[in-house]
Amino acid sequence: MLAKSHLHTQVSKEVAQLRNYEASLLRHYQAYLKGLLRHGLCVSQGTGPVAHARVAVRCMCQLLTTAPHFNYTCVVADVCAVEFFACMTVGMRSEAFAYLGLARPLHIHRI
Asked: Smallest Cα–Cα separation from 38: which of 22, 20, 25, 55?
């Protein structure tokens, strides 16, 4: 993301289009992550089926392993470690650890 002072600098049409594309990509990626979080927490909040939570957890874990360089990786890792792992069933936690390539799940307790 560019500093506000650079947003108003005169640039070529191609650079403006690239900036717009990158900003749009980040907005949509952030919306996707928010949707995954909502679906991942639906079981603990009693608002949705386990299948939705499993898909969301799998997607977040795959993002961590296949695109660790992408924006919001720290946010994804924090959400997985703090929110998802703390409220998952033991079976879902085992699946998540398998997606991440970890040997066995840890027993995480909320503080």
From this structure: 55
Measured in degrees and rounded to the nearest 5, phi and psi for residue 107 equal -90, 110
Please state whether the predicted TM-score (pTM) of the whole model is above 0.70: no
Query: Do residues 37 and 27 lie in contact, with contact meaning Cβ atoms separated by under 8 Å?
Result: no
Q: Report the distance separating Cα 108 and Cα 103, nearest Å.
A: 15
CA atoms of 66 and 74, how far apart (whole Å):
14
Please give the pLDDT value at position 3: 59
Q: Which two tokens stand for residue 96?
A: 């998540």
- Identify residue 21 by its one-letter amino acid code: Y
| Element spanning 4, H or E | helix 4-7
CA 2 to CA 6: how far, in whole Å? 6
pLDDT digits over 11-57, tens only? 888 988 999 999 999 899 899 988 988 888 777 777 878 888 888 88
Q: Which residue has the higher pLDDT, 65 or 9?
A: 65
Copy the structure tokens of residue 9: 């600098």
